[in-house]
Amino acid sequence: MAESTIEWTELTWNPVTGCKKISPGCKFCYAEVMSRRLKAMGVEKYKNGFKIKTHPESLNIPFTWKKPKVVFVNSMSDLFHDEISLEFIKAVFSVMNATPQHTYQVLTKRADRLLLIANELNWTSNIWMGVSIENEKYVQRVTELSQTPAKTKFLSVEPLLGHIKNIPLDKINWVIVGGESGHGARPVKHEWIESVRLQCENHNVPFFFKQWGKPKFNTNANDPTIDKLHPRHAKGGCELDGKIYRELPIMA
Question: What InterPro entries would the database entry show (predicted)?
Answer without folding.
Answer: DUF5131
